[in-house]
Design a protein that fits this description.
The protein is α+β, with helices and mostly antiparallel strands. It has 3 domains: about 55 residues, no CATH class; about 70 residues, no CATH class; about 110 residues, no CATH class. It has 8 helices and 11 strands. The strands form 5 sheets. The protein has a 3-stranded antiparallel sheet. α4 packs across α6. The longest helix has 19 residues. The protein is flat.
């Protein structure tokens, strides 16, 4: 089977580990003390504490998402060779043996010509199930879309605009591979409001009578209405001249804004996946605002 090499392999994405409770549960640093190789005072599921928050991924450079090696059980790799009618010798320069598991071999992707890379690509999901194959969108691509709405009050429209129109330094995350640095996007919006009464009074008045509020002030009008509603409902107060600015200044929103900050994102090294040995150390998950750029 011949496949386009425009598709790529993702590094393995681990599943959540409930035993890593030092990340999922809020920890009080002042109650934690070293105890040999371990830490004393870490909260677990039997203690009185609360969840740390929602899972969200940092923005990254996007330079380390591709898998460079793929491990196969020898029996599965031999089935792949037979299925694709190729020999072991075709791969011999790109194969190394797994020292920890003698039943496995490791194929180095970068050493392969494109036609053999396509064979490895074909194996994903059939002869190898740990990796995922994707066809990523190139950096800098622009997409256009529309969200149509009706019968929204000012607060509801403001809520929609608030989640789409982030602060200038922030970006959303979209699609597969988010924990590896893929999917960082910036959304630029314009708002078009139709005069419903005039629309039904005139035959050709659909968009001729629409009011375009693409100016920042027009969009902020609704965003501030939503922010004002939230602040009044929660009774929270924060510094800022505008309701939107105040909402982004309360503690949990400050943490969210730090994680969405693409312009001042931390280095990849500071937000890398933990190695297997590091889990034993029970490292406490710091708050986003504690991570410097």
């Amino acid at each position: 089977m011949k496949l386009s090499w425009k598709r790529r392999f993702l590094n393995i994405l681990s599943t959540p580990k409930p035993t890593t409770f030092q990340h999922y549960l809020f920890q009080n640093d002042q109650e934690i003390t070293p105890d040999g190789k371990n830490l004393r005072g870490i909260k677990n599921y039997n203690d009185s504490t609360f969840l740390s928050g929602y899972k969200l991924y940092w923005h990254k450079s996007g330079s380390t998402w591709q898998a460079k090696e793929i491990a196969f059980f020898k029996s599965d790799f031999n089935k792949l060779l037979k299925d694709q009618k190729v020999s072991y010798d075709d791969f011999k320069d790109s194969i190394k043996h797994d020292k920890q598991n003698k039943q496995k071999i490791i194929v180095k992707i970068d050493c392969l010509p494109d036609h053999l890379k396509s064979i490895i690509l074909y194996s994903i999901g059939t002869f190898e199930t740990q990796h995922t194959k994707i066809k990523p969108v190139k950096k800098g691509k622009v997409f256009h879309g529309q969200i149509r709405f009706e019968n929204l009050c000012a607060v509801e429209l403001g809520a929609l605009l608030f989640v789409l129109d982030l602060p200038q330094e922030c970006c959303h995350k979209l699609g597969m591979g988010k924990p590896l640095g893929l999917g960082s996007i910036r959304i630029n919006i314009s708002l078009l409001l139709s005069d419903r009464e005039k629309r039904y009074k005139e035959l050709f008045a659909e968009w001729d009578t629409a009011v375009e509020k693409s100016e920042k002030s027009g969009i902020d009008e609704f965003r501030n209405e939503f922010a004002r509603f939230i602040l009044q409902a929660t009774g929270e107060k924060a510094p800022g001249s505008e309701p939107c600015e105040q909402l982004w200044s309360i503690e949990r929103m400050r943490q969210l804004r730090r994680m969405l900050d693409f312009t001042n994102r931390p280095s990849d090294e500071k937000t890398k996946y933990m190695e297997l040995g590091e889990f034993k150390e029970r490292k406490i998950l710091p708050s986003p605002t504690e991570i410097s750029s």
